[in-house]
Write a structure and sequence with these properties.
Strand content: 5-15%
Distance between the termini: 7 Å
Largest sheet: 6 strands, parallel
CATH superfamily of the largest domain: HAD superfamily/HAD-like
CATH class of the largest domain: Alpha Beta
């Protein structure tokens, strides 16, 4: 049977925010006393999970909530620099037309998410935003509870290793997108249920009957 609930990540999955992230991360690094992200390290950092990234950059764990807060504030001030990936509008409309409930679980604020979505926010039934760096499992469970949809009929779509880990902890399938923050090779190595390379692949993966 096709999936009834699609839980999307925002940054790197629906919104093309990685260029913006690279433009501000070094100022945040200087403020919070961790290593800068130099150009020659970007590929290395895109091949690791969040825990390893924190270690490689020397981020103090107690600073993580403060860093997240500052990133959200910066983004809200520069939100006009971030756009959706092409095809999100068509994909949302097609999923909704086929009876798929759409939710978004994000570490960003709901205000930022809704601003980037614009009028497309009308297609999203549930927002569970402000997740901690490793707090998406609880947000997934919250969405499942609100919808009453079983784990067997739900899938998470994201672009990071921590998204895969959270989905597995919550007992739901995972579709990895190749166009986001984490490299396609690193995601594929974690054996997601689906590896997607185009926005239209989302429609096919979520609406094709499963055995």
């Amino acid at each position: 049977m096709p999936y009834k609930l699609a839980i999307f990540d925002m940054d790197g999955t629906l919104s093309d925010s990685f260029p913006w992230f690279l433009s501000v991360i070094n100022a945040v690094a200087d403020k919070h006393k961790f290593q800068r992200v130099e150009n020659d390290r970007i590929d290395q950092l895109r091949n690791v999970g969040a825990g390893e990234l924190i270690r490689l950059l020397g981020v103090s764990k107690w600073r993580i909530p403060l860093i997240a807060r500052d990133m959200r504030k910066l983004k809200s001030k520069q939100i006009d620099r971030i756009a959706l990936f092409p095809g999100v509008d068509r994909m949302f409309r097609e999923l909704k037309a086929r009876g798929v409930t759409i939710a978004i679980v994000s570490s960003d604020s709901e205000d930022n998410v809704r601003t980037v979505l614009g009028d497309l926010d009308q297609h999203v039934a549930y927002f569970a935003c402000g997740a901690g760096l490793f707090g998406k499992k609880a947000k997934f469970q919250r969405v499942l509870d609100l919808t009453g949809i079983s784990v067997d009929e739900a899938i998470s779509i994201g672009d990071e290793i921590r998204d895969i880990d959270a989905a597995r902890e919550a007992g739901i399938d995972f579709a990895a997108v190749s166009w986001g923050y984490t490299s396609a090779a690193a995601l594929k190595a974690r054996a997601p249920n689906f590896m997607l390379s185009r926005m239209d692949d989302v429609i096919v993966a979520l609406t094709t009957p499963r055995g």
